[in-house]
Amino acid sequence: MARRKSLTRKDRKIDMLTHLDYTNSEAKKEGPAKKRYTQHDLRNIKPMNEAQRMFFESYILGANVVANGSAGTGKSFCGLYLALNDVLDEEKPQERVIIVRSAVPTREVGHLPGDIKEKLSVYEEPYRDIVGNLLKRNKAYDDMKDLGKIEFMPTSFIRGLTWDNAVVVIDEGQSMSFHELNSVITRIGDNTRVIVCGDIAQNDLITRRNDLSGFTRMVAIAEKMESFDIVTFTRKDIVRSKFVYDWICASEDTPE
To answer: Given a cut of 50, is residue 16 above it in pLDDT?
Structure first.
């Protein structure tokens, strides 16, 4: 069963569905870079299961959120939707989404060609897809980067930074060492929200001799903090496709 650390908070009253009507409008025709995005450009997404509902509710009611669990459950999609919803709200102090990910490949493939921007672009592809879907425009991710509304940061380049007035989305948290996760968390400044997404079953550090995932420890620390809610996703929360659901169920039920 999906679990959130704190299921209720005092004096919380909210109509969860007033602004969550799902729309299937066609993506806008691509053209020149868009100069401005507003909340009207953002799809309204309705939670598809109880775990997603807990995720939405926790964040909307002010908590930082750790979304922990199975692949294909929409953790990154929901996290970016909630982050963009804040950043595009002119009444909120958050001015940008900062996506943080460790540049760890799922399998060693040698050195990628190109300059640092081209190398990192490979790791941005999932977010181009998600942001393009959410803003109904294929170029939306790059538009938002050009406007300073989205930044992509590998963990290698964050030391010494302070992030104010932002929503920080830490993705693929299971593939970060505790040193990396701690470095990211300690960048958080004033008026900044945090969303952490991870699934220890997809740990890309498992074959690396000197690196251990710090995600489990990070979750344990967040459990002790009033400012964090922990939402656990299980295989019954998978929404990507029935095929993915069947595959993960069979994988979990098959001994190594």
So the answer is: no
Are 134 and 43 in contact, with CB atoms under 8 Å apart?
A: yes
Q: Give the residue from 255, 248, 235, 249 showing the smallest Cα distance to 49.
A: 235
d(CA 224, CA 26): 44
CATH entry, 63-252, from 3.40.50.720, 3.40.50.300, 1.20.1250.20, 3.90.550.60: 3.40.50.300
Q: Which pTM was predicted? A: 0.81
> Contact 136/25 with Cβ under 8 angstroms?
yes
Label residue 201 by pLDDT band (50, 70, 90): confident
Question: Tokens 């940008």 map to which residue?
Answer: 96
Mark residue 251 as left, alpha or beta (left: phi above 0; alpha: psi -120 to 50; beta: remaining): alpha
